[in-house]
Specification:
two-stranded antiparallel ribbon; alpha+beta; 59 residues
């Protein structure tokens, strides 16, 4: 998994709205999570995150 949503996330949902692979969902705790099996590593979520909370942990 490369992209992860860090603790700076403000739960706005912008990442989910912009994900072309529909790889982001809210878990049982209402926190946004990236499904690594669906993620196509495009970086759109990170580019659109207003809190800059999504990072590529492989860089």
């Amino acid at each position: 998994m490369a992209f992860v949503i860090g603790p700076d996330c403000v739960q706005c949902g912008t990442c989910k709205e912009n994900c072309p692979a529909e790889a982001i969902f809210q878990n049982d705790e209402d926190k946004f999570v990236i499904d690594s099996e669906k993620c196509v590593q495009c970086g759109t979520c990170a580019e659109n995150c207003p809190a800059k909370a999504i990072i590529n942990d492989e860089e």
